[in-house]
Automatic annotation (TrEMBL):
Domain of life: Bacteria
The protein's name in its UniProt record: Transporter substrate-binding domain-containing protein
Organism: Shewanella cutis
SUPFAM superfamilies named among the record's database cross-references: Periplasmic binding protein-like II
Keyword list, A-Z: Signal
Leader sequence residues: 1-21
Length: 250
């Protein structure tokens, strides 16, 4: 009986370990239409990431937090999370990045009555721009901000920046254009849509990534993820999900 008990215990324990080994946990933020528990398939970026892991017979669990907390949780050595997303590439020792999981157009939201005129990035130094705390923008823009050449006001969300632009408290705000379009279709922000527009010039088309913790385990998951990602039509998955969200918000 004792032997059978330990055998059953071992089999049960092995099954639990196997289930855990087939599951990966990442953090994300509410960043529609790319990520959010309220979205179809939890967002376009989540759909791509989940499909990539599924190609490798792995299950993805995504938990949503404010952005700063999402990054901190993913960076903790003792965390259940092995990374976070969607993120732009930046130089760091804490994380390693997957192959791109999609592309997001980065631009500026401005008042229709007071458009921002710029040709070179340094021309933006004449204006005060809104940014979201702890968001990566572009290397050049972030360098101007860090050096103090670019006047900015940091907010806790894109929504807060949209409201500040509409009220004339800042000249414009750096934002992903798909995020802007999604937010301006929401009932509580829709009244602001007539006041706002996208600046005629994009800052960049930014590739999106999953950031894995820079450890042996993180590298193993990153390599597995990239293998699964290579089997997908990313553009098709992203396009379908963005279209569905667009249709739901009309």
């Amino acid at each position: 009986m004792v032997r059978w008990f330990f055998l059953l215990f071992y089999v049960g324990f092995s099954t639990v370990q196997s289930a855990q080994a087939d599951t990966v946990k990442l953090t994300s933020l509410l960043w529609p239409p790319y990520a959010g528990y309220q979205l179809v398939q939890e967002g376009a970026s989540v759909a791509v990431a989940r499909a990539a892991f599924a190609q490798m017979d792995q299950q993805l669990i995504v938990d949503f937090y404010p952005w700063t907390r999402a990054i901190k949780l993913a960076a903790m050595p003792s965390s259940d999370y092995i990374g976070y997303f969607p993120e732009y590439y930046f130089e760091t020792d804490k994380f390693i990045f997957s192959k791109p999981i999609g592309i997001g157009p980065l631009g500026i939201v401005e008042q229709k009555s007071h458009p921002i005129s710029w040709l070179h990035l340094t021309d933006l130094n004449r204006y005060t721009l809104g940014v979201v705390k702890d968001y990566v923008n572009t290397d050049s823009l972030d360098l101007m901000i860090a050096s103090g050449n670019q006047p900015v006001e940091a907010a806790t969300s894109d929504e807060q920046n949209i409201r500040k632009v509409a009220a004339g408290r800042i000249d414009g705000a750096v934002i992903d254009i798909n995020v802007l379009h999604y937010l301006l279709k929401q009932p509580h922000l829709q009244p602001l849509a007539d006041k706002l527009q996208v600046n005629r010039q994009l800052i960049a088309n930014k590739q999106l990534y999953v950031a894995f913790r820079n450890t042996e385990e993180g590298r193993r998951w990153r390599d597995m993820f990239d293998q699964g990602l290579a089997k997908l039509d990313i553009e098709s998955i992203m396009g379908d999900l963005l279209f569905q969200e667009e249709a739901l918000n009309h």
